[in-house]
Amino acid sequence: MDIKDRLRNLPGKKPRKLEKSNNKAGSSQSPKANSSTAASQDAYLFNREIYEPDFQQGNYALGELKELPLEQAKFLFKNRSDYQLAKEELIFLDTETSGLAGGAGTVVFLVGLGYFREDNFILEQHLMRDFEEELDQLLAVKSRLEERRAVVSFNGKSFDLPLLENRFVLNRLSFPAPDYHLDLLHPSRSLWNHLPSCSLKALERQLLNYSRRGDIDGSEVPELYFSYLRKKDMSLLEPVLHHNRLDIISLVALAVHLEKTAGSTEYNHLSAQELYNLGRILERENRRQASIEC
């Protein structure tokens, strides 16, 4: 019996039954879903949480994202088109990896995905607990990404999607490249380059009126994952899962803020520096009258 036959005859892992719990909506400081589901799906850990439209992240409720999200502010994106995307066609993506430098040795051990369904916001987390679970994790992520036309990320063009694509290639899978990619980092830098920092956490504090409590820094994530691999203690990954949930929900709130900032015809809520930056962007787009008004 050769090695391929031996591998084929290995017993598969049976999925555990779903463990369901219903939680009340949490405060904006420590978001909790209205309901959550955790399960072991074959060979990876899957978590799903459901947030109602009135769930707040700082100044904004998740349901404030319009039916045509970022339609009025699409000129901020370099890959813009004449598309009209309903919010149900968006999928919000954030990953946690085994290293921040990238490269073939960097593993995407956690993929967080968020999407709207019947007005509710569904947040899913696909966690690879060990390297043998990567293929099952990626197949599930692939299936979900293929359902949506546009990915929304924060620095996903340079970090999240290239790393994910590498993992797909190494596992001999075709990468489900989205039709559109709305990377919120780039318009944020254009509009708010006068701020001390344009990191997601900094924008939360300065624009969304939201401050995280009990959150870890992104640089701590790889060490926590390697500690988990050594000790197999799931409690070590709870802060990582929490950090990932906060990132996903803040992506929605930041998208709402971008639409309200760039898509409005009323400018009295903007600061002088925001008006100046927006005016320069509009001038480059040959929208002279709007630029002059700013």
Structure characterization notes:
This protein is of the alpha+beta class and 294 residues long. It has helices at 3-8, 134-145, 156-170, 185-191, 200-207, 221-231, 238-262, 272-284, 288-293; strands spanning 19-22, 35-41, 44-51, 56-57, 60-61, 90-97, 108-117, 120-127, 150-153, 180-183. It has nine helices and ten strands. Mean pLDDT is 86; it is low at 6-30.
Number-wise, the strands total 10
User: Taking strands numbered 1, 2, ... along the chain, how are they ordered across the largest sheet?
Assistant: 1-2-3-8-7-6-9-10
Strand content: 15-25%
Distance between the termini: 74 Å
* Major sheet description: 8 strands, mixed
Helix fraction bin: 25-40%
What's the overall geometry? globular
Summing up helix and strand content along with how strands pair, one would put the structural category as alpha+beta
- Rg over CA atoms, rounded to whole Å, is 20 Å
Secondary structure tally, helices: 9
| Mean pLDDT over all positions | 86
Order of helices and strands: HEEEEEEEEHEHEHHHHHH
The parts where pLDDT drops under 50 for at least 5 residues are 6-30
